[in-house]
Specification:
The protein is α+β, with helices and mostly antiparallel strands. It contains 7 helices and 6 strands. The relative contact order is 0.13. Bound molecules: zinc ion. Zinc ion (ZN) binds next to strand 6 and helix 6.
Length: about 220
């Protein structure tokens, strides 16, 4: 199986299936349910490699079964090998992305779901820092910043979902000049949840354009 589905497409498919389950649990009208199913299939089928048997089985079962949350989870699981996962980086690779950080706290890879991750984000609670590694213009870049200890309800700049966000002040040292610029954005405190909610990569790209380190000319 060749992975062709992006992580954010996978998260979108998962969300759509969640919506279908919600409808199936709350709506009894067969015609309404058929319309919901048709709309969801219209949205997700173009994202699936329909020449793959697992994708075919997935769609067939979505059509055939009345879903519960547990059944839906079992149905989605076989799609995971079709997803292009976020690369698991070595500590050396991470240190290269954060050259200025002494004793970089490493992320706990074992707790991560690489097939849900459009970017890598982890917190260093001790120093109230957040580290992000994300694809930007064809390569991975590292962003670090201070994460405010207060969590508030608000819209995340990355996943555009309302949730528990905290002010992230990215620290950008302009090379050579030693001046720092700080840019504040509210983002999800929990990057794993942020990733699961991320179904459109554009706001992440916009965020990175603002916070990425820039060389002063
Ligand atoms: Zn978020």
């Amino acid at each position: 199986m060749k992975p062709t589905i992006t992580t954010y497409q996978y998260n979108y498919i998962t969300q759509q299936v969640d919506d279908l389950v919600s409808a199936e649990l709350s709506v009894n009208d067969k015609q309404v349910l058929a319309a919901v199913l048709a709309k969801i299939l219209d949205r997700i089928t173009p994202l699936l490699p329909m020449d793959e048997p697992v994708a075919q089985t997935f769609v067939t079962q979505l059509r055939a079964e009345r879903l519960t949350r547990a059944k839906a989870a079992k149905l989605i699981a076989p799609l995971v090998p079709l997803v292009i996962p976020f690369p698991q980086l070595t500590s050396k690779q991470l240190e290269k992305l954060f050259r200025k950080v002494k004793k970089l706290k490493q992320p706990s890879w074992s707790a991560m779901h690489l097939h849900e991750m459009t970017y890598l984000g982890w917190n260093d609670g001790g120093s109230q820092k957040k580290y992000l590694v994300a694809p930007y213009q064809g390569r991975l870049i590292g962003i670090q910043g201070e994460l405010a200890p207060q969590t508030v309800k608000g819209v995340c700049a990355i996943c555009q979902t309302i949730g528990n966000v905290a002010l992230f002040l990215s620290t950008t040292k302009s090379s050579g000049l030693g001046t720092y610029t700080k840019k504040g954005n509210y983002i999800c405190r929990d990057s794993a949840q942020c990733n699961r909610q991320l179904t459109d990569p554009q706001p992440l790209a916009d965020f990175l354009t603002v916070v990425r380190p820039q060389r002063k000319k």
